[in-house]
Amino acid sequence: MIAAFDVDAQRTFTPLCPNELPVAGGDEIAAELNAQAQLAQLRIASKDAHSPAAKWVVASHANMLQPLDYPDADLTWVRHAEAGTAGFELIPGLPEASAYDFLVYKGVETAMHPYGACYHDLANRISTGVIEWLKYHDVDTVLVGGLALDFCVKTTALQLAAAGFKVYLNLAACRAISETGAVAACDEMRQAGILLVKDSQALAASLQGSN
Description:
CATH topology: Rossmann fold
Strand order of the largest sheet: 5-2-1-6-7-8
CATH class: Alpha Beta
Shape: globular
Mean pLDDT: 97
Number of strands: 8
Number of domains: 1
Order of helices and strands: EHEEEEHEHEHEH
């Protein structure tokens, strides 16, 4: 069984929300996410769902990425992806949230800012339930895309690989905060056995070749 995973494909990580965490081209990946979903039997998604009172919030982008001493919030960030705001919503072209087979909401606790969608904490101890759900549905392969490649997408893919799934990362269905971060993330994922493919066409060919 194959599942497609749309990781944090939200407006907050696109130029549609320039005051939050805009990632260049983040609003251009819906077609690739939809194409990879056509190759799967199940489709799941994660969404950042933050509080305006989050303890990691700073007032300006200039103060971001500073280290914190919270066990489950390691860096400062500006306010983003707050439930009920435009930034919380999925990017244009994706299904409504109710159309997915499983949804993960993460980062709700004010002192927790997880990156991966499989655990609520940074130590990978408190499960969001998605790994267990995938195993219950006999999923062995997960197709991953979303935002941003060098943070939440990378971490989610690594968590899934560590849980024993065969993981494909669709590069055309992702965008990164930085080119340097993207290169480092791709190297780390390859070392973990994750298969990186150029786009959904290459993904389809890889899946067909593995049968």
